[in-house]
UniProtKB/TrEMBL annotation:
Annotated Pfam families: SNO (PF01174)
Gene3D superfamilies, per the entry: 3.40.50.880
Catalytic activity from the UniProt record: L-glutamine + H2O = L-glutamate + NH4(+)
Keyword Coiled coil appears in the UniProt entry: no
A GO CC term assigned to this protein in UniProt: cytosol
A single GO molecular function term of this UniProt record: lyase activity
Lineage, uppermost ranks: Eukaryota, Viridiplantae, Chlorophyta, core chlorophytes, Trebouxiophyceae
Active site per database record: C81 (nucleophile), H199 (charge relay system), E201 (charge relay system)
Enzyme's top EC category: hydrolase
Family to which this protein belongs: Belongs to the glutaminase PdxT/SNO family.
Name of the molecule in the record: glutaminase
Organism encoding this protein: Auxenochlorella protothecoides
Length: 233
């Protein structure tokens, strides 16, 4: 079994726990302390309010621990919405001011990218190949429900960052500001990191959770392989 933690300082963490519990072979754990973090194989950083989440994490002394987990130990981490902002190397846009970012994901993210015009909306986007084979209730569906809540968008991706989903701006959205790109990235994978602008935990599509659980399982297998090799030397 793999133990997957959900950072439970603030925001939509319970829904992630519920989604994880729908998957076989996965144990979901709420994470609020260093000890709890030490006990999990992977971590989800949920949506919420990234400034508040960073402040709480700072007050509880968790920032260095989270950085160690993500960057040194290279454990799998999935950030949704505010969690994506938290993982990003660079954040721009409204109300970005001095909040601590964990970093590690080589992207530039724009906070509240969709927020100026619509706070919250849902659409269907093309599912990436890696989502099509997930053994869940909606397996094989070529699109997925993407729910955006004051969501960030990814404006730039560094080398090694794989784009999993894109959102194409409507003519109205594009007309609002001529400096806006025709499309933005809303889901990426980069090595042990996964990040999405939208909220799969709120629409009953566990395929993203299944994908992350696979990433965690792969990491555990890799670690066991290393340990075996170390013993044989
Ligand atoms: N707008 C929020 C932020 O900047 C993110 C919103 C969300 O996580 N649903 O932190």
């Amino acid at each position: 079994d793999s133990r997957i933690g959900v950072l439970a300082l603030q925001g939509a963490f319970r829904e992630h726990v519920t989604s994880l519990q729908s998957l076989p072979g996965v144990e979901a754990v709420e994470v609020r302390t260093k000890e709890q973090l030490d006990g999990v194989d992977g971590l989800i950083i949920p949506g919420g309010e990234s400034t508040t989440m960073a402040l709480v994490a700072e007050r509880w002394g968790l920032i260095p621990e989270l950085q160690r987990f993500t960057r040194e130990l290279q454990r799998p981490v999935w950030g949704t919405c505010a969690g994506l902002i938290f993982l990003a190397d660079r954040a721009v846009g409204t109300k970005t001011g001095g909040q601590a970012l964990l970093g590690g994901l080589d992207v530039t993210v724009a906070r509240n990218f969709f927020g100026a015009q619509i706070h919250s909306f849902e659409t269907r986007l093309t599912a990436p190949e890696c989502l099509l084979h997930a053994p869940t209730a909606v397996a094989g569906q070529p699109t997925f429900r993407a729910l955006f809540i004051r969501a960030p968008a990814i404006l730039e991706t560094g080398p090694g960052v794989e784009v999993l989903a894109r959102y194409h701006l409507t003519p109205e959205e594009a007309a609002e500001d001529s400096s806006r790109p025709a499309s933005v990235v809303v889901a990426v994978r980069s090595g042990h990191l996964l990040a999405t602008s939208f909220h799969p935990e709120l629409v009953g599509d566990a395929r993203w959770h299944a994908l992350f659980a696979d990433m965690v399982r792969e990491t555990i297998k890799g670690k066991q392989r290393e340990e075996r090799q170390a013993r044989e030397v």
